[in-house]
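Task: sequence design from structure.
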């Protein structure tokens, strides 16, 4: 019969909760270990991706507890934002009601999975005791000059009725709903994340982060070193600053490229209201996706403004064009175009008949303008560059910058692709920005004693296309804290990434009413030792959290430089080769699996299916395989309980063991060593589980325990006894049950890690499988130190192997150490 997983799982979940095993102790004598998985949006119920993510975190937690660490694994809810608000609108309800109901359901699911979570540290970002301190941090940033407000073009989603950060626009569409994103000019609040750009490029303080994530963040920050040079606008006192990493090409500038958003372009549009060609072009381009505009594949387009600027180095008159391939977000927003030495500029100049000038020659001086089919972008010798002619172009870069600085035309500079973080959102369900607009005093912060600014509850979401907070006059209209006059609250709410940028610190002191957290507790727990989440957050949450951590460090609240020492980016769970989604009809309900096969089955399946960082392709048969595996384990121990208990009373004398029991002894210690290496060093739980499955096969090969001597029973009992320990991180309920059945009083997390002895890892012989053209045709037992040549020779002597090689010509013989001899052969001609 199947093992009674429902009874077993309820029993042990009750025991764990009653004993508060998951409750972490502040300032323990044990070494600390902080495990954190990214918290969920409570916009429904837990999905299979959550189950996978949190199974990884729980495996790490239980392993570290077995190692003797004081482990904290908290959980909370990223409960503000569009997902929760849209869920409420869909269900014709209020976000407070639906969010709290979803949290209650998720909590039941978490408990039903048996995760070791310290619920005494629970946070929910939509509750005032949390968002109070988010507002407080906003104010601290404001006081330090890291918050400002300005008018600019923003990514706007009509469907979500809110602004999106650049990172939230994916191929021209909203990352949340998939609607087309347009550009809208708005007043917005910003965090000066760029003040930390250089430090955010430094990953020397993290212990173990995926190189892919580090590269993604570095590319997103995009540091460039070069020069800022001022081009004078012809017939004007105005100067157009440009940033270039190629000062060696300055003498080859033939046009200036500006984006439609550039302040000068906007000014010209106002001055020339009749220039419909330029106006239409700007309107079209402004609403195009910025990433696509800057793509090398995008067709280059532009309109000549009829204006010119002057190259300060040679006095050349330079055409000014408005183009679709230059972005206001990079550098100064203006680009000096050198068609002969930049491919984008080359394509544009060819299309519109703009002159080109070669200023860097190849080494054999063979470049000619009328013969060029593409831009020459390699280093070379300076040409048509006045005093710098014949210099190596790489050498000339620095010399030209020095000359520019000496003449007062510009300066050496560094710029970043990273833009300041726009945090304003025009949605109701978010943390109110604690600022007040006074007609007399301007914009002033809400005093600390008036925090938090409570989010009003009497709002009907989804009933208006404007910001719902504008419809609550008793909340909107306030007295100015400076002059006492009539004023209004800021109605934008904060980007929910603000909420998740410091939650890891709040967990260290989750219910502090006097400050965001006690610095002493934060000092004990931080940084997070192991963080787990999706790689899709590389350039959003993970970057923002690092920024917040460094700011809180600068306030003296925390120590260190990085929030997450180790980062694991887990793979997704796919079905039919695609990401699961309701719209595709390819979802799997984890609760359905838990109800029918148990939480342990689901956990084992998810952890066995692939390494943690790889995607998992859902497979119903593999799920059933996990269920059958746990049934085999249960039947093995329950069916041989008397023999196991008896064997635990003895110690084996190895020399008295039969060959089969010596092999079982080897399996126990070999499996334990493999498990420790996979779990503690490599974090490859799939191969650790595979090792346990292989060991189970060795144990079940012993059919009659009644015929075993006391020495052999001791080996058999040890082989069975380690299975619950080895399974505990992956299938904790059944592991605890079997451990208790065998008579152990300690819970498994108190038992320590299973150990092995090197002396039992020496085999008297090894059995090799022999394959002929991929099919097993025999076996060969040899001494462990047998060399490859002897192995090949002996394999070819096996009678059944010879039979299948008859009439064939051997092409290759491959030896897989300690496992197999593979023979490839084909028919004689």
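Answer:
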């Amino acid at each position: 019969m199947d093992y009674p997983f429902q009874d077993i799982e309820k029993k042990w979940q009750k025991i764990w909760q009653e004993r508060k095993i998951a409750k972490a102790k502040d300032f323990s004598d044990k070494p600390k270990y902080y495990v954190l998985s990214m918290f969920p949006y409570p916009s429904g119920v837990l999905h299979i991706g959550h189950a996978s993510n949190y199974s990884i975190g729980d495996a790490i937690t239980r392993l570290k507890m077995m190692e003797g660490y004081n482990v904290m694994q908290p959980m909370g809810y990223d409960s503000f934002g569009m997902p929760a608000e849209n869920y409420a609108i869909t269900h014709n309800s209020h976000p407070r009601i639906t969010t709290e109901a979803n949290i209650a359901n998720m909590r039941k699911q978490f408990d039903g999975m048996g995760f070791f979570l310290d619920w005494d540290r629970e946070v929910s970002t939509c509750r005032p005791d949390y968002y109070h301190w988010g507002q407080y941090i906003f104010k601290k940033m404001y006081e330090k000059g890291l918050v400002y407000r300005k008018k600019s073009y923003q990514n706007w989603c009509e469907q979500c009725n809110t602004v999106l950060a650049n990172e939230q626009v994916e191929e021209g569409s909203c990352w949340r709903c998939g609607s087309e994103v347009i550009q809208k000019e708005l007043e917005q609040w910003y965090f000066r994340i760029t003040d930390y750009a250089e430090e955010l490029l430094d990953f020397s303080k993290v212990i173990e982060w995926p190189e892919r994530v580090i590269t993604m963040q570095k590319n997103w920050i995009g540091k460039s070193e070069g020069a800022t040079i001022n081009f004078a606008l012809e017939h004007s006192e105005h100067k157009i600053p440009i940033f270039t990493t190629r000062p060696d090409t300055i003498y080859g500038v033939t046009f200036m490229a500006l984006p439609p958003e550039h302040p000068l372009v906007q000014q010209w549009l106002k001055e020339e209201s009749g220039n419909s060609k330029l106006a239409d072009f700007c309107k079209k381009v402004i609403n195009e996706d910025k990433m696509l505009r800057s793509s090398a594949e995008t067709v280059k387009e532009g309109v000549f403004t009829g204006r010119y600027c002057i190259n300060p180095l040679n006095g050349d008159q330079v055409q000014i064009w408005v183009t679709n391939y230059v972005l206001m977000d990079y550098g100064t927003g203006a680009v000096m175009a050198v068609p002969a030495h930049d491919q984008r500029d080359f394509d544009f100049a060819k299309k519109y008949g703009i002159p080109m000038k070669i200023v860097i020659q190849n080494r054999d001086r063979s470049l000619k303008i009328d013969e060029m089919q593409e831009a020459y972008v390699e280093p070379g010798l300076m040409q048509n560059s006045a005093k710098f002619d014949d210099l190596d172009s790489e050498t000339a870069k620095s010399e030209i910058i020095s000359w520019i600085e000496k003449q007062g035309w510009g300066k050496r500079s560094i710029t970043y692709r990273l833009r300041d973080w726009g945090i304003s959102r025009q949605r109701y369900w978010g943390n109110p920005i604690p600022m007040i607009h006074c007609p007399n005093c301007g914009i002033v912060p809400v005093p600390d004693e008036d925090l938090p600014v409570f989010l009003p509850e009497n709002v009907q979401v989804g009933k208006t296309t404007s910001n719902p907070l504008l419809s609550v006059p008793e909340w909107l209209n306030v007295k100015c804290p400076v002059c006492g006059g009539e004023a209004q609250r800021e109605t934008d709410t904060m980007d929910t990434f603000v909420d998740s940028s410091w939650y890891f610190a709040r967990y260290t002191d989750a219910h502090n009413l006097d400050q965001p957290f006690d610095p002493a507790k934060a000092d004990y727990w931080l940084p997070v030792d192991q963080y787990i989440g999706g790689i899709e957050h590389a350039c959003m949450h993970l970057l923002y959290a690092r920024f917040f951590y460094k700011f809180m460090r600068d306030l003296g609240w925390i120590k260190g430089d990085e929030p997450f020492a180790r980062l694991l980016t887990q793979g997704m769970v796919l079905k039919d080769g695609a990401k699961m989604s309701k719209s595709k009809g390819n979802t799997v309900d984890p609760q359905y699996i838990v109800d029918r096969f148990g939480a342990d089955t689901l956990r084992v399946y998810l952890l066995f299916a692939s390494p943690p960082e790889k995607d998992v392709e859902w497979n119903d048969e593999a799920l059933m395989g996990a269920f059958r595996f746990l049934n085999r384990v249960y039947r093995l121990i329950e069916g041989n309980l008397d023999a196991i208990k008896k064997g635990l009373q003895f110690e084996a004398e190895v020399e008295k063991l039969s060959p089969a029991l010596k092999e079982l002894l080897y399996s126990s210690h070999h499996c334990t060593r493999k498990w420790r290496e996979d779990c503690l060093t490599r974090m490859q739980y799939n191969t650790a589980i595979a090792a346990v499955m292989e060991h189970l096969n060795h144990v079940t090969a012993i059919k009659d325990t009644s015929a075993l001597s006391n020495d052999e029973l001791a080996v058999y009992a040890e082989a069975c006894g380690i299975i619950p320990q080895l399974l505990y991180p992956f299938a904790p309920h059944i592991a605890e049950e079997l451990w208790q059945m065998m008579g152990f009083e300690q819970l498994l997390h108190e038992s320590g890690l299973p150990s092995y002895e090197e002396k039992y890892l020496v085999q008297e012989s090894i059995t090799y499988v022999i394959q002929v053209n991929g099919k097993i045709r025999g076996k060969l037992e040899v001494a462990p130190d047998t060399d490859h040549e002897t192995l090949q020779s002996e394999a070819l002597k096996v009678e059944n192997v010879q039979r299948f090689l008859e009439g064939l010509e051997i092409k290759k013989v491959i030896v897989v150490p300690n496992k197999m001899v593979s023979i490839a052969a084909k028919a004689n001609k």
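Residues 659-682 form the longest helix (24 residues).
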